[in-house]
Every structure is written in C-alpha cells, then in structure tokens.
C-alpha cells in the first residue's frame, strides 16, 4: 500500500508541469467560452450594439418628425387667426353653416372571391 502511494506520488511529481498546463488550458478555454457566449459575452454585446444603433436611428427620425410638426405649429400660429380653425375643420370634417363640402367617393372593394377547388369539383 505504501509502495503504491509512493509510485503515485512520484508519477504526480514528474507530471506536475503537464497537469498544470492542461488545467490552465482547460481554464483558458472555459473563460474564452464565457467571454464570447456568456450572459455578457461578445455575442450579446454585438446584439445590444446593433439595437442601440437601430434605436438611435429611430430617435433621429422622431426628432425630424417633431421638428416638422413644430414648424407646422409655428406657421399656423403666425398665420391669420382663422388658419387654425380651418385646419381643425378640415381634419375633423366640421362644416360651417352655408359651406358646401365636396367628398371624393371611395373606390368600391371587390368582395367576390375565387372559388376553391372543392367548390369547383362539387366536393365538400
């Protein structure tokens, strides 16, 4: 029994560099995997970065739309006092007494549908 322990101890002592190198290699592979694919890894970071770019573009578009609306409000406030009333009546469809409104007829939608194969062959 003592001999087997001594042999195992000698073998372990001779192989210590190899075992240490293997342990460090396994640890490096594990850490590398976590860095790339972990909860806060590079793949998640790239996705979040792409989302940030998309959201920034959306913010820029909304800012442009806001500036256009602000310009429209400013121009309505500078114009005659009836301009706001006129714009509101056009958007809401209100009519003053004595005004005539011309309405463009809407195109009729075709409610017919093509018959199915079962209807063509008389099957149910």
Task: Write a short abstract of this structure.
This protein has 5 helices and no strands. With 124 residues, the chain is mainly α.
Describe this structure in words.
The protein is mainly α and 124 residues long. It is elongated, with a radius of gyration of 38 Å. Among the domains are: 32 residues; 51 residues.
DSSP helix fraction:
over 70%
Output the helix-strand order: HHHHH
Q: Distance N terminus to C terminus?
A: 86 Å
The overall strand count is 0
Q: State the major sheet.
A: none
Which term fits the overall shape?
A: elongated
State the helix count.
Answer: 5
Oligomer: single chain
What is the secondary structure topology, with strand pairs?
Layout: H1 2-14, H2 16-37, H3 42-78, H4 82-92, H5 117-121
Structure keywords:
5 helices, 0% strand, 124 residues, single chain, mainly alpha, elongated
């Amino acid at each position: 029994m003592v001999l087997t322990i001594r042999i195992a101890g000698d073998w372990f002592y001779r192989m210590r560099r190899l075992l240490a190198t293997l342990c460090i290699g396994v640890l490096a592979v594990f850490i590398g995997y976590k860095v790339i694919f972990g909860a806060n890894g590079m793949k998640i970071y790239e996705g979040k970065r792409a989302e940030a770019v998309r959201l920034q573009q959306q913010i820029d578009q909304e800012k442009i739309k806001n500036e256009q609306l602000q310009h429209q409000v400013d121009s309505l406030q500078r114009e005659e006092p009836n301009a706001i009333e006129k714009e509101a009546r056009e958007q809401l469809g209100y009519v003053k007494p004595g005004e005539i409104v011309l309405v463009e007829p809407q195109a009729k939608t075709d409610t017919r549908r093509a018959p199915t194969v079962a209807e063509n062959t008389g099957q149910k």
